[in-house]
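job 3f2a | input accepted
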Amino acid sequence: MPDARIGVIGLGTMGRGIAEAALAAGYRVTAIGRDADSISKHVLDFSNFLQKLARLKRFPEEIAAHLPEILYCSSKLEELENCSLVVESIPENLKVKQELFKQLDSTCKLETVLATNTSCLTVSQVAALAKNKGRILGIHFFNPVTIMKLVEVIKTNRTSQRAFDKACKFCQSLGKTVVSAPDTPGFIVNRLLLAFLSEAMRLHEMGVSAEDIDKAVTLGLNHPMGPFKLADFIGLDTALYIAKSMQEQLDDPHFTPSDTLTRLVKEGKLGRKSSQGFYTY
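job 3f2a | predicted structure (281 res):
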């Protein structure tokens, strides 16, 4: 069992997934939420969820039995002071992330590696206000965290080799396969994914059905899921946000969101989470 405490900031879908994976691997976890009220509710829901998984044999029972001893939650960043590694997983607001890393840099011990789980901002942007940039990098998990095997680790031109190696070792201890990704908008996977989705949506607007495009991709390219089912799974609002962000950062019209995607999001059709997107669920 690893003798280390991991910090996770944000208890949304990704934050909870990262915390679950770290707990299952034997780490102690300090989770940080917005305020005392929200953190109490999130922790209760999260603990009940892990206990349910343990009963279903999908989470280690011996760890679930000791959750109060290994899962600590707070709304104070000072509680992260002695963590070995901290992963931020809050909404994609650059100014908020920059201020957070400035605070983390002044709060955590110098040996602590600070990581962002951003999916579309560059790590250099996120680290801009911090003094000790050598310990800041990106650790990009994929949803659902406990199932997806890949993690992109992003090293900036200021990240130390020590921090990079420590982050890779942490990810590997969770059973993940690590790839080193460049510090560019979208990194590897999302940059390719958004280009792929953009082309699929252009074909759709030319009159090709979403069903036929998905069939062509799954059977012709041997993908497990077509682009439209995948977009619905990711969340059309998330896909739209990433596309807009990459288009702005790269100044490349290729990533300009399609009219159809923009319209569906405006209508509240966000994919699986709203029961309707390109498909009805």
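job 3f2a | The chain has a mean pLDDT of 94.
job 3f2a | closed
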